[in-house]
């Protein structure tokens, strides 16, 4: 998952890095700060370098806040990916003259017309800024988290189209005038012996039926949204790519 960025940063073991191994993870963070990010002054890195301390998680959490990492300490993979992205950007800034004229293999023959035809073709789904932005939107809109950030982005698009457009908001703002209901036409099915309680029970039953109808409507909307994502022939969620 991190091999390309680790290789770009000359990490000693890009293929075998395991962020779930606590000791390896802590040593990696120290290496990343010492060699690439260098956010702290050397004399201020003591707590972060003390990887055997019980207070190390607190020091790392403070470090995340200091570098403005948008993820929580429990979101380890996302945090590592974001920090690697930061390190790559800083590395490029330190060596801009070295990389400014470099061109990726195969990029020289790209058809610009076809490239611009689909705006999502140029989207780097592994970019930490992209992931952080999608996660922030998903949290704001209360959308279920998914391992594929592109899937979450498409879910956000569907929600915005269906709920947050001007037409959708205007339709939702329209007041709904209820229709009169004749309770005597609705059989309760049992008798409590008290006319007032019987009428209250009839009202509660009708309200429950209305809630079930609203729930079914929301279920249908969710099914349609999922089908819209899955049925998109231009999306290969396994590869995290868009386009044929």
TrEMBL record:
Domain of life: Eukaryota
Cited InterPro entries: RTRAF (IPR019265)
Alphabetical list of Pfam families matching this protein: RLL
Alphabetical list of PANTHER family matching this protein: CLE
Family to which the UniProt record says this protein belongs: Belongs to the RTRAF family.
Protein name: RNA transcription, translation and transport factor protein
Annotated source species: Campylorhamphus procurvoides
Gene: Rtraf
């Amino acid at each position: 998952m991190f091999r390309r960025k680790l290789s770009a940063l000359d990490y000693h073991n890009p293929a075998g890095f395991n962020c779930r191994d606590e000791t390896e993870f802590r040593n990696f963070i120290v290496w990343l700060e010492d060699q690439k990010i260098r956010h702290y002054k050397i004399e201020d890195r003591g707590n972060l370098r003390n990887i055997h301390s019980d207070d190390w998680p607190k020091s790392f959490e403070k470090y995340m806040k200091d570098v403005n990492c948008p993820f929580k300490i429990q979101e380890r993979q996302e945090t590592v990916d974001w920090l690697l992205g930061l390190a790559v950007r800083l590395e490029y800034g330190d060596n801009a003259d070295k990389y400014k004229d470099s061109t990726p293999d195969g990029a020289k023959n790209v058809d610009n017309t076809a490239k611009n035809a689909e705006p999502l073709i140029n989207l780097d789904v592994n970019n930490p800024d992209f992931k952080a932005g999608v996660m922030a939107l998903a949290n704001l809109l209360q959308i279920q988290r998914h391992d594929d950030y592109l899937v979450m982005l498409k879910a956000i698009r569907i929600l915005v189209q269906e709920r947050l457009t001007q037409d959708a908001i205007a339709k939702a703002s329209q007041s709904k005038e209820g229709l009169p209901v004749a309770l005597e036409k609705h059989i309760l099915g049992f008798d409590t012996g008290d006319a007032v309680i019987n009428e209250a029970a009839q009202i509660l039953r009708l309200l429950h039926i209305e809630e079930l109808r609203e729930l079914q409507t929301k279920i249908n909307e969710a099914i349609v949204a999922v089908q819209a994502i899955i049925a998109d022939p231009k999306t290969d969620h396994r590869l995290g790519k868009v386009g044929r």
